[in-house]
Write a structure and sequence with these properties.
The chain is of the alpha+beta class. The chain is built from two helices and eight strands, in the order ββββαββββα.
């Protein structure tokens, strides 16, 4: 299994960038549960890890990518700045690595391969005529 995070915009301490506990992936999979609306690692184990492991702020420029083990303890703070923080996180898993106690079977459905030309032939539509992904007005002649 492998996780990849790509920064779409700059991520830094000021806008709540990702934080990781260096080496925590070597602890193995630890207990997770709900904290409000989100699922997270047991705070007890996070506190134990922080006694001996370093908390690292992962500051990224737009376009940077971070590859990390999915058991690496990670979190981010709320973005209280006036700058956006957008990222794309993808998780890759071998189909033979069937998740334990996971109701979704999406990780075991093989991807359908398409020819390379499919990318050139695919027809797209704009999400909005008024704004691009970051909410800025389009410049005339540009899409």
């Amino acid at each position: 299994m492998l996780s990849i995070m790509v920064a779409i915009t700059e991520a830094n301490k000021g806008n709540g960038c990702l934080q990781v506990i260096k080496g925590s992936h070597k602890m193995g999979r630890i207990e997770h549960g709900f904290s409000g609306e989100q699922v997270g690692a047991s705070q007890h184990y996070v506190d134990l890890a922080l006694k001996t492991m370093e908390l690292v702020y992962v500051e990224l420029k737009a376009g940077d990518a971070l590859f990390f083990h999915p058991n690496l303890l990670h979190r981010s703070e709320a973005n209280l700045s006036d700058r956006p923080r957008w990222s794309l996180i993808s998780v890759y898993n071998r189909s033979a690595n069937v998740p334990y106690n996971e109701p979704s079977k999406s990780s075991t459905v093989p991807l359908k391969m398409v020819p390379d030309e499919a990318l050139l032939e695919w027809q797209t539509k704009e999400i909005s005529d008024e704004a691009n992904f970051f909410g800025e007005r389009k410049r005339s002649g540009l899409k």
